[in-house]
Specification:
The chain is of the alpha+beta class. It has helices at residues 9-22, 29-40, 44-47, 57-71, 87-91, 94-115, 143-149, 152-162, 165-178, 223-233; strands at 26-28, 75-79, 82-85, 122-124, 133-135, 182-186, 197-203, 206-212.
Length: 237
Amino acid sequence: MITLKLPSEVELAWPTVVALRDLGGSGRNAQITETVAESEGFTEEQLSILDKRKRPYIHYRIAWARTVLKRIGVLENSTRGVWSLTQLGWNLTEDECLDKYQQERLKIRVGGRKATTGKEHWNKTAESNVGSVSLDISHDIDDDVSDDFYDWKSELLEHLTEMPPTAFEKLSRLLLLEAGFQNVQVTGRPGDGGIDGVGVYRVSLVSFPVYFQCKRYSGTVPASAIRDFRGALAGRG
């Protein structure tokens, strides 16, 4: 089996500074992560490595790098999720940055040990394909960077797949209403060609009926289902 190795947050500290310089001195979480990934040449396989909570490891480590860089005065974030280089961040050399970074990590490590009555906060990641030592800082990382790796999409999909079919149809109706459709009704009549509901969509002075079908597939919807649904719509909406 081929294993993939990700850089540690220490190795990502300087690339984070360089990324912000390339971005003109400031950027959002996603911009910074994308710039670092591009400059470091990460593969899709590396970017897809997830932790136990289905969060991309690389996002987590870059977020932690930003947190430490903020502690040592290299970065600041006046707005949630928006980071800027300080004057120190503009002037610092790579060696100076790494030296300050390592010193701050040591302080966090010692402080963490004292706070937990001697329990070490150094831990090896559980997944063998990550394979580098990092700090356990889930309790310590800034709230304003946690959104960067909070995988709300996976959590949403998990809830959607657990919903009963009728509840999923009602949710689809609600989404259509929020999108501006009118008189949206869930029908779900047997033998109606897979049509689950109907609504009215108004464009200026013109209104026309719209039919919808609710599908929850683990993959893509097959072409046959699309053809059947299009056939049911013929001449109706």
